[in-house]
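Researcher: Next entry in the queue.
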Amino acid sequence: MDRRGFLLTALAGVLAWPLVAWAQPPPQQPRQPIIGITLGGSLPNPYAEAFRVALAGFGWVDGQNVRIEYRYAEGRPERYPGFFAEFMRLNVNVIVAGGGTIPALAARQATRTTPIIVFVPDPVTAGLVASLARPGGNVTGLSMQIMEIGVKRLGLLKELVPGMERIGVFCDAADAGEATAIEEAASGLRSRVQILRISRVPEFEEAFEAAKRGRAQALILCASGFFTSHQKHLLELAARYRIPTIYEHRDFAISGGLMSYGPSIAEMYRSAATYTDKLLRGAKPSDLPIEQPTKFELVINLKTAKALGLTIPPSLLARADQIVE
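Model: Structure for this entry, 325 residues:
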């Protein structure tokens, strides 16, 4: 090839190079992480907002660098398996199984690989983790100390109603551990406990009727996502039957219940955001110990107490985190 032919061939190659480069597809962007979260209630939901805000504090902003898929059971626990099946189709990176033991077990049934964050009374007994210190598997989260809290609620009722001898305990038929702990504690306090297991909404009124026949002087409503989902109905029944009742968390007392004591649910969802951040940054759920709530709230509704003809002892009022008047 002469000098002229060589130069023409080289020039043609240079001119063709940009066309080849332009024809290549652009580099693929990494997939935005997806978080699937279930909640027992409906919209508007302050706990969903608590989770979102806490997660943003770690730099994960919904719609910018992470996508949060919310699902609300609205008091229908049968919806959870469908939610988790949908999360699997979406290929979520983390599942926050809010709503109690039922959704936690449904999530574990759906996947043994995707990290799951749960809030349950006893994740070891439920078969979700191997131990609190080293969960193993794909589940981590919080143990809600329900047994101890139930006994604490019993003590608060005894303080509110001196000489109380008969106590009704409403528990979710799917998880009666708290009721058993209350029964054991009551025996040492010379109180008789009537445990009423509830699995369906029509059984709510039946339970109040049974408590009335048993001459219960007060009621303890055990922790249950099922009960929380039907808060309004339970409060209406408690007002109609005029039985002093202590509930799981503040929403009950603020909405008209007499008294509530339990872990801050909003704080638990903030803790879930902490777990989520660690998991998204590469931590393994098997290495993240199960934690216990650190913030508990006592809320007393004075308006309801007055309607029931009760006088709240000053010692209880002094310890209340919030008083509804």
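Model: Confidence is low (pLDDT under 50) at residues 6-12, 14-23.
Researcher: Noted, moving on.
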